[in-house]
Amino acid sequence: MRVVRNVLIGFSFLLSIWLSPAQTTPVPSTNQQSRQWFQDARFGMFIHWGVYSVPADGEWVMQIKKIPVSEYEKYAPQFNPTEFNAAEIVALAKSAGMKYITITSKHHDGFAMFGTHQSKWNIVDATPYAKDPLKQLAEECRKQGIKLFFYYSQLDWHNPDYYPLGETGHSAGRPEGGDFDHYLDFMDAQLTELLTNYGDVAGIWFDGMWDKPKADWRLQRTYSLIHKLQPAALVGSNHHSAPFEGEDFQMFEKDLPGANTAGFNKAGVSQLPLETCETINGSWGYNANDHNFKSVPELIHYLVRAAGSNANFLLNVGPNSHGQVQAEAVERLHAVGEWMQKNGATIYGTRGGPISPRVWGVTTEKGSEVYVHILNWKDDYLAVPQVSGIKGARWFRSGEKADITPLNGGMLLKIPERQRDPVDTIVVLERGGS
Ligand code: H79
């Protein structure tokens, strides 16, 4: 029996390597430690902020409204975010229970939110603000103990060397011609600045490669550059494909791992650390007309379901052109933070639990404890699959013993009225020694 089991374990180990080409080369221990930290963190803040906050119609406004570069550039002199306060936004992330921030250093419009020397199309040189918010943010993150990732769009609607064009950018009124290799040099130079001038960077979050998936992006050269400059930095790319060699985590946009409500999440789930990102309303970049904010329980459920799917949750805010985060977002982040204060032990440092995600909820686990998160169940009894080695069970909030009995190869959990929580009723299954 044991031999069979070992063979099976060996086989699944081989299979897991085979399934995740990104892990075929040895990963240095500093990077392994970052991956552990990342998975333990479980909750981060995404910040979409750029010159698009001036038209206040989301970060795709240039593409959707067919604005040519020459017109779009006129937003820069109007971008003066004097209300931006790095200390406040880092404190906001912390109060929500978030452990890291991922901010757009450059989105598809090519506008750099940092003082780059590679182009004048940046917040220091092209706006009256003339300061580098990423510098301020990096400093505050260090002070307040939050890690900082930089989002970087490989797709660029502004740089004329981003040529030939891919799926997008056809209304930007750009020259016919350009040297893509030269563009990639520009990108590597900007990444070098980001990884040299801002202290320790937790990782680079690429996006936009899906615009021309068949192009030669010189990925290995860029990824090696990043890992050479900062070996602990995690590389991830939102290319909607299975991870490539040199990537350290896999992300999903607007879907839990394995789901595909967005339509483009067809890649399988790899063995790498996972992350899913979502908006608080329906927009990433500031959109003055989007008032469709998700409720606090919806946001908590997404966070819990992400953890139960073994993934981090990266929740977005889109500051306006003054640098302020919308009050509706602040309010919700505070409420999620209150929930995390009480229940964070069942999320932080956990991994997806032994029962895979269900319609009624999910499980997470840490050490000898399994946390059953009941998110969507109204009846007094819930039958769940057998979890091995369970010696006892208790209600997480009250600490009282939970009534869980064997049932035909599964387990039956009784949920008394007084143990119920309208958002998430949590049972702790206690595993004994072997
Ligand atoms: O930064 C935010 C968005 O602006 C960015 N990613 C998040 C984090 C994003 N860019 N595109 N998308 C999200 C949606 C992508 C849609 C696609 Fe397609 C469908 C890409 C490929 C197929 C649209 C249709 C673009 C090309 C064809």
Detailed description of the structure:
The protein is elongated and about 70 Å long. Strand 7 (274-279), helix 10 and strand 8 (311-317) form a beta-alpha-beta unit. The chain has eleven helices and 16 strands. The chain has 434 residues and is an alpha/beta fold. The protein starts with a helix and ends with a strand. It has an eight-stranded parallel β-sheet, sandwiched between helices. It has a five-stranded antiparallel β-sheet with strand order 9-10-11-16-13. Strands 12-15-14 form a three-stranded antiparallel β-sheet, with no helix packed on it. It folds into two domains: 11-350, Glycosidases (TIM Barrel); 353-431, Golgi alpha-mannosidase II (Immunoglobulin-like, Sandwich), CATH 2.60.40. Helix 5 (86-95) packs across helix 7 and helix 10 (296-308) packs across helix 11 (327-343). The longest helix has 18 residues, at 2-19. The structure holds ligand H79. Residues 48, 59-60, 167-168, 207, 210, 238, 253, 264, 277, 284 line the site of ligand H79.
In short:
The chain has 434 residues and is an alpha/beta fold.
What keyword list fits this structure?
434 residues, alpha/beta, TIM Barrel, Immunoglobulin-like, 2 domains, eight-stranded parallel β-sheet, five-stranded antiparallel β-sheet, 11 helices, 28% helix, elongated, disordered N terminus, binds ligand H79
